[in-house]
Amino acid sequence: MVKNNPPVIITAIADTDAESFIAGTLYSQGWNVIFRALDAQSLTDYLDNNVELSRTALLLYSPDLPDFSRRKLDGYALLVRKVVGFGDKDDLTSEYSEIYAFPKDANELISMVRGFIRTPLIRPTIFETKKKRQALVLAVGSAGTCTGASTVALNIASELALLDKKTLLIDAHFSAPSISTFLDERKLQDDDDWREVSPNFFVAEFNRINSSQHISRLTQAENNFDHIVIDLGDVGNFSSHLTDQRWQSSIITWSAESADTIWVLSRSDLLGNERFNQLCKVLSRTAITGELGFILNLATPSRKSSNEEKEFRMITAPFPTCALYILPRDVRGVSSSVRERTTLSEAAERSPMRKIIEEMARDLTA
Fold it and tell me: What domains are there in the chain, each with its CATH number?
């Protein structure tokens, strides 16, 4: 197993307000800020006296740091994992060719830093502004396995297509892809393009074979579809994925930074509640660009369901503006769709789960 060690942070930024914002934000998101240099000499002394630790560090600097120079920067680059400069456009000179604009808010900062430590994914372009896209992106993940993320992703994509929205469903559940099986679409993993399965409804599978093309294919899809639905599968180790450099984490990280909406599913049993509770604690401390929504799946149709819903609402209380959905345990409807290798709208049009998912799709298009 590859061990994932997120880098520690060293700041060397002259502007005290900017430095405080960067160091404080990164610390609140779980990064270890090990040193905050006031000038080039203090930075040099620290790196010389902490050689092993410095090798794992991401050095964030500004060219206007007292006594700073290009020659010193070249020396620092040999002692740390990576150097990244922040400054104004006036700092973009031949001497310092890679200077990035100071981030405007916490989400932009977190997104940039994740990009710097994650290779070979796309890094932010110098002073690049975020481009508008056509598609609305929904990512669906679950707090644990066997929670229904794939079922929800498949059927929400189908409902969007029925609403005359050109929709792409991406199976990015790398450890256990299932969309091709649910729809009886054989060799989906071998396709280089999107496969049309019905009017307005397209599917694709991301896997190890095409991992180098994941981000470029998403960028292409953003301007070719009205909606993109991504099945992330189990996102229980969410915080680890965000600093993981391996290909398996690329889409989860991209979703945290780029998706318009992220839905997280929870099971209604004891273990499901515990995993969901732990994940929500992580999400409350994590900078995410899009809106969060939470789904209680497999709710029991009995007197016990009120207690399940009450606990679900208690766990999601720190997210007062987030959408909440309750999906019933619909054994008959889901079994019919699995048996017929199709969606709920085709196999069980009047099933309880299908009716709610249809309403969820309408909410996304409202």
Answer: 8-117 (3.40.50.2300), 136-365 (3.40.50.300)
Supply 315's token pair. 């766990």
Tokens of 241: 């994925």
Nearest of 316, 144, 297, 146 to residue 235 by alpha carbon: 144
Contact criterion met (CB below 8 Å) for 317 and 346: no
CA 117, CA 95: separation in Å to the nearest integer?
23
Q: Is the peptide bond before 301 cis (omega within 30 degrees of 0)?
A: no
Q: Which two tokens stand for residue 293?
A: 């929504």
**Strand residue runs (E) in 106-174:** 136-142, 167-171
* CA-CA-CA-CA torsion sign (364, 168, 326, 267): negative
Q: In degrees rounded to 5, what are phi and psi of residue 148?
A: 105, 15
Q: How far does CA 36 lie from the centroid of its chain? A: 29
Q: CA 66 to CA 62: how far, in whole Å?
A: 10
Q: 300: helix, coil or strand?
A: coil
Q: What is the pTM of this model?
A: 0.71
Q: Could you give the CA distance from residue 356 to residue 95 in angstroms, rounded to a whole number?
A: 59
Encode pLDDT of 281-297 as tens digits: 888 877 788 899 999 99
Q: Max CA-CA distance within the chain?
A: 72
Q: Which of 176, 190, 182, 194 is nearest to 152 (CA)?
A: 182
Tell me the residue length of the chain.
366
Token look-up 């209380």 returns 317
Residue with tokens 């599913």: 265
CA distance 43 to 169: 49
Give the closest residue to 288 by CA, choosing from 82, 131, 102, 139.
Answer: 139
* Band of residue 121 on the pLDDT scale cut at 50, 70, 90: very low
14-43 per-position pLDDT tens digit? 999 999 999 988 887 778 899 999 999 999
Residue 233 CA, distance from chain mean position: 12
Helices (H), the chain: 16-28, 40-49, 51-54, 70-77, 106-117, 149-162, 179-182, 214-221, 238-242, 250-258, 270-284, 304-315, 331-339, 344-347, 352-365
Q: How far apart are CA 240 and CA 200, in angstroms?
A: 35
Residues with Cβ within 8 Å of 133's Cβ and at least 6 positions away in sequence, in order, are: 222, 223
62, 86 contact by CB (below 8 A): yes
